[in-house]
Write a structure and sequence with these properties.
The structure is a homodimer. By secondary structure, the first copy, chain A, is α+β, with helices and mostly antiparallel strands. Helix content of chain A is about 35%, strand content about 25%. Chain A is built from five helices and five strands; from the N terminus they run αααββββαβα. In chain A, the strands form two sheets. In chain A, strands 4-3-5 form a three-stranded mixed beta sheet. In chain A, strands 1-2 form a two-stranded antiparallel sheet. In chain A, strand 3 and strand 4 form a beta hairpin. In chain A, helix 1 crosses helix 3 and helix 2 packs across helix 3. Chain A is flat, with a radius of gyration of 16 Å. At the A-B interface, strand 3, helix 4, strand 5 and helix 5 of A face strand 3, helix 4, strand 5 and helix 5 of B. Chain A binds a DNA duplex (25 and 25 nucleotides) through helix 1 and helix 3.
Chain lengths: ~130, ~130
Amino acid sequence: MGAVRKSVKRDAILSLLRSVKCHPTAEWIHAELRKLYPDLSLGTVYRNLRALTDAGLIRSVGVVDGQERFDGNLAAHGHFVCKSCGAVMDVELPRTGIAALADGPHGHVTGVEVRLTGLCRECMDKETE
Amino acid sequence: MGAVRKSVKRDAILSLLRSVKCHPTAEWIHAELRKLYPDLSLGTVYRNLRALTDAGLIRSVGVVDGQERFDGNLAAHGHFVCKSCGAVMDVELPRTGIAALADGPHGHVTGVEVRLTGLCRECMDKETE
DNA sequence: CTCCGTGCAAATACTTTGCAAAGCG
DNA sequence: CGCTTTGCAAAGTATTTGCACGGAG
């Protein structure tokens, strides 16, 4: 989890991740930043996402529908994933219970990820039509 | 979540998953069952894992190191994932707190997955060497 | 005869990696 | 000038899919 150097592209990825509410894929970030840096390559995005994750500056939400999702928000929170549209939303975690998981009999715990899956509001409405 | 028919290969996959404590990948299951059914193909394993998951007879633990892990244990529990060796172990969840997540403001929740990541006992020991 | 499950192989899709050129201090 | 970052394209890996065969009812 060493620090990471700065670079134009890396900083752009980091600040984009910090500024959006959604939980983007590498491709989404690539498409988005290409508006600003038309020569940005997808490989660079992947490389930097990994570097930033390793450095602990961002975190991975895990794989949703075959693509990894990233999150610039480091505060403790969970995620709600819609099975239908793939949207990922932040969920507040009740402090109770979760904290108790911090260390178990299996080893040293360094991260907790809580993922709820289901159908989001929008998709529930669509389904009723 | 419709029911699934029975078939020799599918049943074998299901009972293997129910009998093991680990949380296998498709490849591991394939290798294991090949001892019994030398003609079992990997495609069939993938196909049946998906069918069983859709039917709700098994569940996916999510992707660890690029491979999906499956679990035959349907009881509510979380998982501890070792960053170093990739081992996945069951974790008991404190009932408090988790139940409160059952429904949120984002939509209808149908599944909860809690994943702890860290270093397992074995890998902690190895690291001290 | 009909249908479902399967093996096999090809196709997909995401992600990683090697390399040479460009950039920064 | 040395070291890092990047674009590009090729490679790698996990998973899905199409198709034809084979067995059960």
